[in-house]
């Protein structure tokens, strides 16, 4: 009898231990599952503001308004980048916590190099099981720090504000780090559009070539898909309808390549005070005027230790054939543009004439050495 009682006690003890382990594991797994979503924003439509600040002194505020997103209450935001950030916040997950052994070192790294992330949302003050929501208000819902990349380049260190545990975060399906997505430099978030006008909204387009009035022109809209075209020396152009239509439709999405805010002020002033190459001015039917003025992109004489006069002798050799400097009327921004994008907009009046013939490129054949077959 005593032996049976002893066996029963042992069995009960084992069951209690197993139950304790299961309960502990369940709590751990539940905690881990909760931690895995600590940095996630499920309802990105409720996000009103995003604030980023890094240790280099950069900081930026992205804010949603009726027309989209704006940067620092002043500039239009790059909608593609904002959409990517909203997707990232919705999909970011925790892979695992950093081990206690490595935690102190990673926290030390984070204290010297990180990007602070603040998320603001419209959330209800009262929420009954996500069924009844009342008294919506804007609140700072999440604050965390994005650190560097893990050794295998497949994760990113993250830390909640006020927390003492570092995690490794990732985006399921993405191989790489999340850090570059959380840039705090305002320039990175600004929109690069020069023109984004529909053809039906355009009243006129004027193109000026410096020193060539005959090939400069103005196109005026008469009605839908009907235009007049006149050279700036006063001569009308018997133009190709297809070419003019193609030009007018091309203004729907035209972007520059990069801001040139890092160019020294003296060099910037020297460039924009030099003779311009072309100027393209678009006027909308509601009276807005948008223009872009282009300048040659030349080598900097100081870099090559030559005088500017020497470099100008070899102008065609050192001029960048694929890029130009440009000054935008909106914001007086100094930017870099690509010929691949703007080349189709910067064609002379002769190009649009019905009797214009495209030049046929000359192809030269070299003699090929005859190799006897075996």
What can you see in these coordinates?
With 374 residues, the chain is α+β, with helices and mostly antiparallel strands. The chain has two domains: 44-185; 193-352, no CATH class. The chain contains eleven helices and 19 strands. It has helices at residues 2-36, 79-91, 100-112, 186-189, 241-249, 265-272, 301-304, 308-313, 315-318, 339-342, 349-352, and strands at 47-54, 59-65, 68-71, 75-76, 93-97, 115-128, 132-149, 156-160, 167-170, 193-195, 202-209, 217-223, 226-231, 254-255, 258-259, 278-284, 289-295, 323-328, 334-338. It is elongated and about 115 Å long.
Strand order of the largest sheet: 4-3-2-1-6-7-8-9-5
What is the rounded distance between the termini?
Answer: 100 Å
Series of secondary-structure elements, N-terminal to C-terminal:
HEEEEHEHEEEEHEEEEHEEHEEHHHEEHH
User: What is the gyration radius calculated from CA atoms?
Assistant: 31 Å
* Strand content range: 25-35%
Mean pLDDT figure: 84
Which helices and strands appear, and what pairs or packs with what?
Elements: H1 2-36, E1 47-54, E2 59-65, E3 68-71, E4 75-76, H2 79-91, E5 93-97, H3 100-112, E6 115-128, E7 132-149, E8 156-160, E9 167-170, H4 186-189, E10 193-195, E11 202-209, E12 217-223, E13 226-231, H5 241-249, E14 254-255, E15 258-259, H6 265-272, E16 278-284, E17 289-295, H7 301-304, H8 308-313, H9 315-318, E18 323-328, E19 334-338, H10 339-342, H11 349-352
Antiparallel strand pairs: 1-2, 1-6, 2-3, 3-4, 5-9, 6-7, 7-8, 8-9, 10-14, 11-12, 11-16, 12-13, 15-19, 16-17, 17-18, 18-19
Short description:
By secondary structure, the protein is of the alpha+beta class. It is built from 11 helices and 19 strands.
């Amino acid at each position: 009898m005593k032996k049976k009682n002893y066996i029963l006690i042992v069995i009960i003890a084992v069951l209690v231990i197993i139950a304790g382990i299961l309960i502990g594991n369940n709590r751990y797994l539940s905690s881990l599952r909760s931690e895995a979503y600590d940095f996630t924003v499920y309802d990105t439509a409720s996000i009103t503001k995003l604030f980023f600040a890094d240790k280099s002194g950069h900081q930026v505020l992205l804010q949603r308004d009726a027309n989209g997103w704006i940067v620092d209450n002043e500039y239009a935001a790059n909608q593609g980048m904002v959409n990517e950030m909203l997707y990232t916040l919705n999909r970011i997950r925790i892979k695992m916590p950093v081990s206690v052994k490595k935690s102190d070192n990673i926290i030390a790294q984070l204290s010297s190099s990180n990007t602070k992330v603040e998320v603001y949302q419209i959330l209800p003050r009262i929420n009954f099981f996500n069924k009844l929501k009342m008294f919506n208000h804007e609140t700072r819902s999440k604050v965390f720090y994005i650190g560097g990349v893990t050794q295998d380049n497949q994760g990113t260190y993250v830390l909640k504000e006020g927390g003492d545990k570092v995690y490794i975060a990732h985006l399921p399906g993405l191989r790489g780090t999340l850090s570059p997505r959380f840039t705090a430099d305002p320039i990175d978030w600004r929109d690069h559009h020069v023109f984004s006008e529909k053809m039906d909204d355009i009243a006129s387009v004027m193109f000026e070539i410096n020193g060539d009035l005959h090939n400069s022109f103005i196109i005026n809209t008469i009605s839908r898909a009907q235009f007049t075209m006149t050279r700036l020396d006063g001569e009308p152009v018997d133009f190709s309808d297809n070419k003019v239509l193609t030009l007018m439709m091309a203004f729907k999405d035209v972007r520059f390549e990069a801001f040139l805010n890092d160019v020294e002020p003296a060099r910037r002033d020297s460039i924009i005070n030099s003779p311009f190459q072309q100027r393209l001015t678009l006027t909308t039917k509601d009276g807005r005027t948008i223009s872009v003025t282009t300048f040659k992109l030349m080598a900097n004489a100081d870099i090559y230790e030559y005088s500017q006069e020497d470099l100008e002798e070899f102008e065609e050799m050192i001029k960048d054939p694929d890029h130009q400097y440009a000054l935008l009327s909106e914001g007086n921004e100094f930017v870099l543009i690509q010929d691949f994008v703007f080349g189709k907009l910067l064609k002379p009046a002769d190009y649009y004439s019905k009797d214009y013939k495209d030049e046929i490129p000359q192809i030269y054949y070299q003699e090929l050495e005859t190799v006897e077959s075996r």
